[in-house]
């Protein structure tokens, strides 16, 4: 499972420096999470670091189908 960033993101750049896998990048319009790199911080933190720092709470877990 990965995480995704909602369109309410204000591109504040709080999350990207916190990611241990460099999975968050600005794509020219908005910050995005590369789901091939995101491990939900497994082995680094107990909870996703990006979610912890986002001031808007706009990083969501993808619903598992
Ligand atoms: S959950 Fe962790 S690994 Fe995934 S994007 Fe957020 S900070 Fe990076
Ligand atoms: S911390 Fe939240 S609002 Fe800021 S760039 Fe990341 S996702 Fe967007």
TrEMBL record:
The keyword Iron-sulfur applies. The keyword Transcription does not apply. Coiled coil: none annotated. Keywords: Iron, Iron-sulfur, Metal-binding. SUPFAM superfamilies: 4Fe-4S ferredoxins. Pfam families: Fer4_7. InterPro entries: 4Fe4S_Fe-S-bd, 4Fe4S_Fe_S_CS, YfhL-like. Residues 1-29 form the 4Fe-4S ferredoxin-type domain. This is YfhL family 4Fe-4S dicluster ferredoxin.
């Amino acid at each position: 499972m990965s995480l995704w960033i909602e369109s309410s993101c204000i591109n504040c750049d709080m999350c990207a420096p916190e990611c241990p896998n460099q999975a968050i990048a600005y794509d020219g319009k908005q910050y995005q999470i590369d789901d091939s790199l995101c491990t939900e911080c497994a082995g680094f933190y107990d909870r996703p670091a990006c979610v912890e720092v986002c001031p808007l709470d706009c990083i969501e877990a993808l619903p598992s189908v």
